[in-house]
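Lesson 9: reading folded outputs for more than one chain in a single document. The general rule is that every protein is listed as its sequence immediately followed by its C-alpha cells, and records are never interleaved. Here is the first one.
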Amino acid sequence: MSREARLERLLDFLHRSPTPWHAVAVMADRLEAAGFRRLDERQPWQLSPGERVFATRNDSSIVALQLPRQGLESLRMIGAHTDSPGLRLKPNAAQSSAGWLQLGVELYGGVLLAPWYDRDLGLAGRVHVRHADGRIEGVLLCVDRPVAIIPSLAIHLDREVNAGRAINAQTQMPPVFLQGGEKADLQRLLLEWLEAQHGITGAEILDFELALYDVQPPALVGVERELIASARLDNLLSCFIGLEALLESDGSQGVVLVANDHEEVGSASACGAQGPFLGDVLRRVNAQLGEPGEEGFIRLIQASRMISCDNAHALHPNFTDKHDAAHGPALNGGPVIKVNANQRYATNSATSALFRDLCREAGVPVQTFVTRADMGCGSTIGPITATELGVPTLDVGVPQWAMHSIRETAGSHDVEHLTRALIAFANRSQLV
C-alpha cells in the first residue's frame, strides 16, 4: 500500500466528513465495500467465526469487528472519536441585526475561537423531517459552499485587538448568513437544500443538528508535502488510521474498531465512550462466539487490549517553552505514547511496553508525551473506556499542532507510522 494512495484516501475522508454523522456514513460505506455486514441493534444477531460486521448508534458512533476465525479468546481494540470542537446551530438559530440574517451558535467542546473569523463557512449535519405520508426520516445535509462568514472587526475600531482580548461567544461569534433576510428564510433554505440533495418535497422539518464548518479543502502542505492541514484532524485522523488498520489486518485475530461521538464534551451519552455502546456489542458477540456468562465476558476483556488513538501535542517551534524539555514530540517523528500519572491518559508501563514492541516490530519510531508539571492535561476516551470495560488500555496519537482550531496541522509521514503499528497490533497472536 503506497503512502501517496493512503494520503489521498485520507484527504478524501476528511473532505467528506464535516460532521460525526457524515464521518460514520463514510466509514460505513468503506466497511460495506470491504465485505463487512451491517448489524441492527434492534434485531437478533447471528454471528460466525471469521465474519466481518459493524453496528452504528445515533448514526454518529460505530463499532466494527473482524471476528476471529478460531475461538474468541482475546480482542485487539482500537479506539477513536468522531466529533471535533466547533460551532453548532441553536434550535432557533435565525436572528437579525443591522440588516443581516445571522445564525445563533452554541460552542461544541473546547473551541479555539479566533481562527473561526474570516473563514468561508458551509453548513452540515443531520435533519429530521416528516414526510407528507407521516413518515419521519433523518437525512444528512451538507451545504459545501460558503454560505456564512464571521467577519473580524477592523483594527481601526479595536486598536487593542492584537494585545489579546476575550471573545464573547454569544455576541461576537454569530456568522452573517443572508443580507436582508428574515427568520423564515433559514427554514426555506433548508427545505430547498433538502430537495436539491435528496429530492425531498412537501416535507416538514421537525428538528436538526447542524454545524458550521470551513469549506477550505484539506491539503498537503510544505515544500516536501510533509504536513497535512485540515479541519477536524482531532480526531478524524485517528478514525481513518484505525479503519485502515482494520481493513488491512490479516483476519486471523479478533479486531475491534470503536469510534465514539461526544468525546469533546465528556463522553457521557448513549453513544459516547462513557455509555454502554461498546459493552453492549461485545457482550452480544461473546454470548455467541465466546465463553458464555459474565465470567466468560470478564475473562475475554482481561485477555484483550485497547489502544486509544487521539492526537498528541507536537512541539511548536514558536512555543517550545510549552513542553517539558524531555517530552516534546516532533511531527513525522512517529506515534506518541501519552502518559499522565493522574490517569488523564490510561497508559501504564505494561501497555506502553506492548506498544513499544509493536513499533519495533513494524519498524516505526515512537515518542512519548507528558505535559509540563505546571500545566493541566487533557484526556481521551482511553481512561473512560478502561473504566467502563476494565480492559487494559494505553493512549497514543499522531502529534499535531493547533489542536481544536478550525484548521489543524499534522505530519504526513505519521499517518503511515501509526497505521503500520496498528496493523501489527491487529495481527499479533499473543498480547501478553
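And here is the second record, again sequence then C-alpha cells.
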Amino acid sequence: LIANFRTTAEDFYNKIISHWRVETYHYHLDMLMDEDEHIAYKEPYSMAILRSFALNLFQLYHNENKGKKLPTGKVTMAEIKRTCKYDDNFTAELFEQEYV
C-alpha cells in the first residue's frame, strides 16, 4: 500500500483487509453469479440485491458446513450453487436454516 500520508501499521493493515474483503465479495459475485455477464434492463438494482442475497445464503451455508459433503461433492461455494440448480429440496433447506 502506497500512501502520501503517515499512519500506523495497524491502520494500513485494516485498510488492506477492508479492501480485500470487498474484492473477494466482488470476485464471488462475478464468478458464481455471473454478475458482469448479466444485463438487467428492468430493475437492475433489484437484481443486484437478489444476487447478493443468494450469495450471502451460499456463504452462510458454506461457513456452517465446512468439511462436510453435499450429495454432489465437497461443500464449496460453486458446489452449493450447482446443487441449488438441480435440487429444490436443498434450496428450500438453505432458506429454512437458522443462521446465527
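What the second record shows: The helical segments are 9-33, 44-64, 77-86, 88-96.
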